[in-house]
Amino acid sequence: MDHPTNGRRELLARLPKVELHCHLLGTIRQPTMAAIAAKNRARTTREAIEQFYVRGEKPVGVLHIFRELETHILANTEDFYRIAYEYGESIAPHTVRYAEVFWNPTGTLKQTHLSYPELQGAILRGFSDAEHDFGVTCRLIPSIDRQASASEAVEMVQLVIVNRDANVIGIGMDYNEVDRPPELFTEAYALAKRHGLKATTHAGEFGMPWTNVETALTQLRVDRIDHGYTVLDNPELTARCAELSILFTVVPSNSYYLRTLTPEQWAIQHPIRHMARAGLQIHPNTDDPAFHLINPTQCWERMVTDFGYGLSDLRDFMCNGLSGAWIDEEMRRRWLREWTVEFDDLVAEAVVGVDRDDGESNTAEMNM
Ligand SMILES: [Zn+2]
After folding, report:
1. Which of 52, 123, 210, 326 lies at a CB distance of 3.0 to 4.6 Å from 234, suitable for a disulfide?
2. What residues make up the domain containing 283?
3. How large is the angle between the packed helices 30-39 and 77-91, nearest 10 degrees?
4. Where residue 106 sits, what CATH number does that domain have?
């Protein structure tokens, strides 16, 4: 009898959500990538593209796919328009109503003849048309490529400032954190902050130390942290982040722990299981949904199935997302008010529905 799972999944699909940690290049559908590669006569073979969408038990991560996209596949503004539009289309059925999406300009600017304003404009047009057609709001977070130089990071921030658009709300930083700690990018973050941009960074990913989380907060003065799992290695820092209500955008499908933990360890040791229980504000995200083979509903479901969280936790996560989103205060207050009512109504309706169908055992399942 698979009804409880279906009921839970339907409920999770209908819960109103934000998404705060998703990379534009991590959202490209396989047919879209194949079509763009063929159109641009990319060297990337159809077989290579198929392999990008195979997720093994011990996934190697997705950064090499991003480099292939930047270097050999994406070549025109229409490519960026299409992936931005399709992302908006893809999240609408999961009741994601608002998303803040990362995009690294540096690699594409180096590898193509496209300019920053052309690229930013194409992505924002894709978001705008998706909002019109599907009712989802997407905002852009240009991100520092931390494997490039500190001066290139400053240049990236300057481009954001010179081409300032109300739909470009802050900066992030990603790519490989190993040997690229946050302090290398202090100047770029200071520049962004001086110009009123919000800021976040990937930190404590790939098993990198808790000191990267602390440096990001104290030196880069970020408003939130992406991943941040190793914060748990320092209880004092964990308590401070809890006290300050720092939001951690976590990724249940993150490759690093799939590679390094056995299934038995996963159930007990995975940091996401412990972060909210340690008082941290967390919010689940898909990161690279096309390559993690996950959608927002499945992402939220993993918080239940993999990490043992229940409905009241999911309600907290929903509110955490709104608290940490870079939206104006009036909208935040309104959405917090409306979404909590909606959440409670959906849960009540789901429990009543299950009661009617299958009796008590499924009510317990609904309580998660
Ligand atoms: Zn990420």
Report:
1. 210
2. 3-367
3. 170
4. 3.20.20.140
Q: Tens of pLDDT along 92-147?
A: 999 999 999 999 999 999 999 999 999 999 999 999 999 999 999 999 999 999 99
Distance of alpha carbon 146 from alpha carbon 181, whole angstroms = 8
**Alpha-carbon torsion (240, 232, 172, 191), positive or negative:** positive
Distance (Å) from CA 60 to ligand 1 centroid: 14
Number of domains the chain is built from = 1
Residues 255 and 56: their CA atoms lie apart, in Å, by: 10
What is the DSSP pairing of strand 224-227 with strand 17-23?
A: unpaired
Classify 75 as helix, strand or coil.
Answer: coil
Report the separation in Å between the CA atom of 350 and the middle of ligand 1, taken as the mean of its atom positions. 32
Q: From the CA of 308, how far away is ligand 1's center (Å)? A: 23
Nearest to 28 by CA among 109, 91, 111, 84: 84
Average pLDDT value for the chain: 94
**Distance between CA 137 and CA 88 in Å, rounded?**
8
Residues with CB under 5 A from ligand 1 (ion): 287
Helix (H) or strand (E) holding 228: none
pLDDT (tens digit per residue) in 333-343: 999 999 999 99
User: 96 — phi, psi (to 5°)?
Assistant: -80, 115
Please name the residue that has the structure tokens 């990379």. Answer: 23
